[in-house]
Design a protein that fits this description.
Helix content: 40-55%
Largest sheet: 8 strands, mixed, barrel
Strand content: 15-25%
Shape: elongated
């Protein structure tokens, strides 16, 4: 009997550890998932919500974990005193999950709970929370998917609407399914080596001849559709796959430049876009040097294109890295110049030799060429070369040439070309 009682006590302790939050002694994530699936079907409207306390990690870091625990206890006390018919759980370090009638679990009522300051250890502390909600279908059992859906509603709000409440919609679900499908496609394309490069010629406006190429990443999925880089590159960056893809681009572009040099096109410079994630890799410079050596490519025939926003987070660290790249002979260009939030001040941190005027300013030139003039003047004053992107008409070409722009690229000269078409185009130009 004693052993039996001991086993009962042990079982209860194990159950507590599995289903109860140790700090607040309320249901944890495991218990909430169980309650969601086992909650009875009722005729009234119900809702599930995820409440994420904004900047909770900063509170812990600056005021200590004991103070952070007091914050959690006071938030729970407020929820408990105002939500009499709802199940309250702690599903993450700074996140509460709620399951209850829509009359209690709704955006207006939950946000109102954070209108007044919270009394924490003798202090009045103002808190805000971002909330994701899912309206449960009347008369049907809840599904564990509601937790995922609530988080889907929560995530974009944390980035753009902190301190707000957002309801999950079918559109959000569709977007997420598309993202998951696209992410799987990216992974498959990496494994099957389905990413490839096209090359857009860059024209010297002094000689009218090509003086370089920009390597551009392309992807054709299994259905034969071309996926826009504007669509898949941000997802690749968010998922941590951009370093793999970026290194593939570096290697493929250097290989192509090596082949071009073997054919006698030794004056061409290859421009290659690199992402912030690539530059953050500790061995990026070593990887770059190894690729240059593998294909016997002169460093001064490679130009890495970066966006000005790359230097925004840590200008000094970025500058030190780019100086190392310049030391091995590789050039730096600032892409899409003029579109970033710190366009002018950031120039002193980036040791670049070229500015690229964003295509949006080129499109405006016929009505107003003031921005293009400013960037060209800035480039000249700093001793930098200037390239215009997106040149599509003869009028744009002539205006840029008359303004003293060094280089241009765009469909007026040539669309981006695959390897075979590129060689054909070069032969037609150079003879």
């Amino acid at each position: 009997m004693a052993v039996g009682f001991d086993n009962v006590v042990l079982y209860e302790r194990l159950r507590d550890q599995a289903y109860l939050d140790p700090l607040l002694r309320i249901p944890n994530l495991n218990k909430m998932l169980e309650l969601i699936t086992e909650s009875p079907v009722i005729s009234g409207d119900r809702c599930f919500a995820v409440i994420d306390i904004d900047d909770f990690s900063s509170i812990n870091d600056t005021l200590g974990h004991e103070f952070g625990d007091a914050v959690l206890k006071e938030v729970y006390r407020t929820l408990r005193n105002n939500l009499n018919e709802s199940v309250i759980s702690r599903i993450n370090s700074d996140t509460f999950g709620l399951l209850g009638p829509a009359s209690e679990v709704n955006a207006v009522k939950l946000l109102a709970l954070f209108d007044n300051p919270f009394p924490i250890q003798g202090n009045e502390l103002r808190l805000s929370a971002t909330i994701g909600l899912v309206a449960l279908e009347r008369g049907k059992p809840a599904d564990p998917e509601v937790l995922k859906n609530a988080n889907l509603a929560l995530k974009p709000a944390k980035h753009t609407k902190r301190g707000s409440a957002v309801y999950f919609s079918d559109e959000m679900g569709g977007i997420m399914r598309d993202r998951i499908r696209l992410l799987r496609g990216i992974r498959s394309a990496i494994e099957a080596q389905k990413f490839f490069l096209v090359y857009q010629p860059k024209i010297s406006l002094d000689t009218g001849k090509p003086d370089g190429l920009e390597a551009l990443l392309r992807w054709q999925n299994e259905e034969g559709d071309y996926i826009s880089p504007d669509y898949f590159i941000p997802l690749a960056e968010q998922s941590g796959l951009m370093v793999i893809i970026g290194n593939h681009v570096l290697r493929s572009a250097c290989w192509q430049l090596s082949r071009l040099r073997e054919q006698g096109y030794t004056s061409l410079v290859m421009s290659i876009n690199v992402s912030q994630l690539q530059l953050q890799e500790a061995d990026f410079v070593q990887v770059l040097e190894r690729i240059l050596q593998d294909y016997n490519v002169p460093p001064d025939k490679i130009e890495l294109e970066i966006t000005e926003s790359i230097a925004a987070d840590d200008p000094k660290k970025t500058r030190d890295l780019l100086l190392k790249i310049r030391e091995i002979g590789v050039n730096i260009a600032i892409d899409d110049f003029g579109t970033g939030f710190s366009s002018l001040s950031i120039l002193k941190y980036i040791p670049a030799g070229r500015l690229k005027i964003d295509r949006s300013f080129i499109l405006e030139m016929e009505q107003d060429d003031s921005i293009a003039r400013i960037i060209l003047g800035l480039g000249r004053n700093l001793g930098m070369m200037v390239t215009a992107e997106g040149v599509e008409t003869g009028d744009q070409y002539r205006a840029l040439r008359d303004l003293g722009c060094d280089e241009a690229q765009g469909w007026f000269f040539s669309k981006p070309l695959e390897e075979e078409a590129l060689y054909k185009w070069l032969r037609s130009v150079f003879g």
